[in-house]
Design a protein that fits this description.
Oligomer: single chain
Mean pLDDT: 93
Helix content: over 70%
Order of helices and strands: HHHHHHH
Largest sheet: none
Strand content: under 5%
Shape: globular
Length: 180
């Protein structure tokens, strides 16, 4: 359910873009993200920090797109968000000595400390790369292709990364002990 809720604004953006264009899709994405945050706040009583940041980025870049009628701003939004996630991971790790990946997954899986570090760096590098790929698509292809990439390409790359990460982590998984 959470995964569906997370992709709701992106899917709605894609659908509205195909019917009404980039500016209507941008307006809908802003509204959908506000509704998403309101729903999360109502349902859980709180909203994750990254969700608030995502809302801020869509309001700023989407708002700039609508005010200036320049689609460049909305095309930058995913890259900025990816780079903020990358920066958050690395700043927390190098400055505050916190591994957010371990904080998120540490209760579900037990890994050696150096593997948690590798995992964090892999995620940070992945987010950095995703930001650059987004801009490459935005500046080398038409808006229709960029919107399709935003939904399907970005999601596909994320899925491939998660599967590869799962394969990497499988070497460190322990078999559950059988009780007689």
């Amino acid at each position: 359910m959470k995964l569906l809720l997370d992709f709701f604004p992106i899917a709605l953006f894609f659908i509205v873009f195909k019917v009404y264009g980039i500016y209507a899709a941008t307006a809908i994405a802003i509204v959908a993200t506000v509704l998403q945050i309101a729903w999360m706040r109502y349902k859980n009583g709180r909203v994750d920090t990254m969700q608030w940041i995502s809302l801020g980025v869509i309001v700023v870049f989407g708002g700039a797109t609508l005010i200036t009628q320049d689609e460049t701003f909305i095309k930058w939004k995913p890259s900025v968000l990816y780079w903020l996630m990358c920066a958050t991971l690395w700043i927390a790790y190098f400055i505050f000595k916190r591994n957010f990946i371990q904080s998120l997954m540490g209760t579900q899986i037990e890994l050696p400390q150096d593997i948690w570090g590798r995992l964090l760096h892999a995620w940070a590098a992945f987010f950095m790369l995703m930001g650059f790929i987004n801009l490459w698509v935005a500046y080398n292809f038409d808006t229709d292709t960029w919107v399709s990439y935003k939904l399907f390409g970005g999601l596909g790359l994320m899925l491939v990364f998660v599967v590869l990460q799962g394969l990497f982590l499988s070497r460190y998984m322990k078999e559950p002990e059988e009780t007689p």
